[in-house]
Amino acid sequence: MSTLHKNLSNAVRFLSIDAVEKANSGHPGMPMGMADVATVLFKDFLKFNPENPSWLNRDRFVLSAGHGSMLLYSLLYLTGYKSVSLNDIKNFRQLDSICAGHPEYHKNSGIETTTGPLGQGISNAVGFAIAEEILRNKFGKDIVNHKTYVLAGDGCLMEGISHEALSLAGHLKLKNLIMLFDNNSISIDGPTNLTVSDNFKKRFDSYGWDFIEINGHNEKQIFKALKKVQSSKKPTVISCITKIGFGSPNKSGKASAHGSPLGLDEVNLVRKKFKWNYDPFVIPNEILKNWQLIGSKGKKIEEKWSKKYNKIKSKIDKEFNPDLKQIFSDQKNIMLKKAESLATRKSSEKILNEIIKQNKLIIGGSADLAGSNNTKTIYHKPIKKNNFKGNYIHYGVREHAMAGIMNGLALHSGIIPYGGTFLIFSDYCKPSIRLSALMGLRVIYVMTHDSIGLGEDGPTHQPIEQLSGLRSIPNLNVFRPADTIETIECWQLAIESQKTPSLLALTRQKVDPVRKENSSDNKCAKGAYEILRSSKDINCTIFASGSEVSLAVKVCHKLATENIYSKVVSVPCQELFSKQNNEYKKEILEETKNKISIEAGTTECWNSYVGNDGISFGLNDFGKSAPYMDIYKNFKLTEEDIVNATKKMINKN
To answer: C or N: which end of the chain has fewer Cβ atoms within 10 Å?
Structure first.
């Protein structure tokens, strides 16, 4: 091992050790064990420029094993990123420090994605790698020709999402994807042989990956492996046999090095072993300059690249920033004239046809349900192995990976991804949806078969509590459009929402059109709005979403025949309504004391609308297997049942 390498890698080790020790919290073992691998990667192979962390053609480095976050922060500081200062490192895991307990995505910081839940970074990395292939095919290899490196641990590979993502990556032959597997055979509970007997080589062989195994503390072996993968025709995993807590006399190779500080006595022993005779957080100028030289190399590479990029910059900017406003306006006019009864999943397909016709960097997909989700249009071409000219990804039955991969697509460069499955399977996607919201990504989830309205497939496929659960996630817009016009408006809001992911809950069954007049405004943008009024003076307000808005309209008309007058408020997005000013909220909510809500799901998220004296019509139990109209009758979600209950409420109040 060269002296230079030893000094560089020890700088990473001791910054990590010292930060965890000062915070009295964190995971020192992984940074100590993977410092050698990371040093060779950054020194000799990774293409990056700390002066422009968002350079389009940089290599991506994803830390899926997010508990080892100090490895990443140390590397960013040492190589000269302005986002991470020495003071930030000293404030590791403290309030408002960029050096959070697990990496949190910050634009222009060098932190490429938010990781923590194990395996998420792997799926994000697959998304990065797919995005690179798409853009290389579109703009040419002179503009886009980079790699994605993902550092994963034993825990990442135990999580099911890793299987889904790695399998798809192998199928697509993502040759620009390299996994650095920290194969230290330790997890929190102890040796991994407590729970795992996997043959990793056979596992990756079956995925269609190349597999290389090395000593993760041997500089020459690390270099040779990374050199080899530069020309690989498949995704490659480099299994780095390492010692967790490498250099710790009493904790190396043990679970005690994983998730807690080493302790001052042990830190002093590590310093003695490595002959690191410097105070905490002190990096000798010579070593720091060598790291900064490594960081400065990318500037010249980017400058050379920029000459080619600037020639087609206007074309690239246009591709990434589609102006689709006229499409939405035109389609509203067309569909108003037709006034068809359509399932909103079909309405979604119709507007998607027009959107995708105009922009091929909106990348669609579905988890083996394209024909049911209506996510694949006549203007889509599938992405295939060795052919990334398409704009549609067949994810297979891999809902969780699909969601994580879409996060990677969105993070990579501004591609707008959307992917479909049934709303009931949002439970598979939820960890990734939550991270979309946490990172503020423009990711669009198309979730069809959104209620008991799907009918005969029964309670295993009928979402009941999912809407309430999804609405509880901060910074996620959950759209449930009532008809074709609302579906068009919700798609517009989703595409224009650059810092908030969107979820469209769409029907399997046909719904009647409820929007009869065109509006130049996007009414769904307010989240809730009056759609019908049976009289100037009313004594009842009816709130509803999605397929139940047409039912609310019928209830309104029926009540009017009995001299009970009401207004119907369509609520396509509770999250957007919550952001309206108090005056508008009062206008919608407080006109009457008598209030009801209608939605074929759990009722708790309607409490703030109807208040203590109102009634929420919905389901707080599982559905049934039967034709959907029979199920609605069974749960008393019919015009007659709602009218009778509403009359009783009004008489009581």
So the answer is: N
